[in-house]
Specification:
Length: 99
Amino acid sequence: MKQFIHLGFNNWVASSKIAVIQVPNSAPAHRFLQVCKEQSKLIDITEGRKTKSIVILETGQMVLSAFTPDTIVGRIEGNDKKQKEASKANKQEKLRSKE
C-alpha cells in the first residue's frame, strides 16, 4: 500500500517516489531549480509563501514546499512507524487466530 506525505496546502506525494529533500539555499539547488523550470518539471506548492524545502522526486521533478525538511522527514518517519505498528499488530492477530 502506498504511503503519501502531506507537503502542504492539501498537496500529497507518494513517499516511495521521494529521492532527495534539501534546503533551497545552495547554489547547486538554484541551478537545478532553473533547469527544472526550463524543462517544465517544477511544481510549486508554496502558495506564495517562502520556500523552505526542495523535494526532488525519482522522476526528476522538483517540488517546492513551504515546510522545512525536518517536518517532511518527520512525517515520513511517522508514517513508517505507523505502518510497522500496523504490520506487527496484524502478525499478532494472525498468530492468535491460528491458536
